[in-house]
Amino acid sequence: MTPTWLLRRGAAPEPGTEDEQAPDADAPDADAEPEPAAEASAEKGPPNGRLRRAALAGTAAVLVLGGCGFFYAAHQLRSEAPARNRALTDTEATTRVAGDVGDALARIFSYTPDGTAAAERSANSVLDGRAARQYETLFARVRDDLTEQRVTLSTRAVRTGVIELDGDRARLLVFLDQTSHRGEDKGNGKGQAKADAETTTAAAQLTVTARLDGDRWRIVDIKAR
Predict the structure, then answer these.
(1) Mind giving me the DSSP string for the chain?
(2) Which of the listed residues 84, 102, 118 is the one where a domain comes to its end?
(3) Which domain holds residue 200?
(4) Is residue 77 part of a domain?
(5) I need a labelling partner for 155 at 20 to 30 A (CA). Which of 41, 43, 53, 88 fits?
(6) Would you state the pLDDT for residue 159?
């Protein structure tokens, strides 16, 4: 049985304009009608130019509006998130919830073969909601095995980080160190090898949700990562 056993079960180039030429003495009279080809060419130029200018203006407007929206959203995230998440601003409250949760986890996941009742009593005082139901169901399944196999588990929280603290709710990431002993201890208590005892050490990582109940934090959800 491993120590974590109890915890687990995303254009074409524009045509250039022709150079204007000076009028020549032999040029036809100004009142003469232009040739059909020249007239057609003169009529095609201006509409294309207007369409291109309109398209460029529209693209520029979209980019400007999109940029304004992006910077507004970024400003909202920077200004609103810290106000909601006290884990970033309230050191005292953050330290308190981290301490309460770390201590609670150490108590409910530490027991001896003849002392599981103490762990269960601790669970009644520090767990609530889904976490309490999970723990009760789990212990009901393994209680007899823990006694028969003489399992002793020692747990300590080595690092507790508060991810979010908003009002009376908190979410934390907790790293645990666990040491378990299984079997009879036939050592003399003075450093002699323990012949029939099996010792295992492991680390566990949990995501914990806690709720402030009066003056103490109670764990309402535990998920092994």
Answers:
(1) --GGGTT----PPPPPPPPP----TTSPPTTSPPPHHHHHHHHHHHHHHHHHHHHHHHHHHHHHHHHHHHHHHHHHHHHHHHHH-GGGT-HHHHHHHHHHHHHHHHHHT-B-TT-HHHHHHHHHHHB-HHHHHHHHHHHHHHHHHHHHTTEEEEEEEEEEEEEEEETTEEEEEEEEEEEEEES---S-SSS---TT-EEEEEEEEEEEEEEEETTEEEEEEEEE-
(2) 84
(3) 91-188+195-224
(4) yes
(5) 88
(6) 96
| pLDDT > 90? residue 157 | yes
Place of tokens 């003849």: 114
Q: pLDDT confidence of 50, banded at 50, 70, 90?
A: low
Structure tokens at 110: 């530490």
**Are 144 and 114 in contact, with CB atoms under 8 Å apart?**
no
| Residue 25 domain-assigned (yes or no) | no
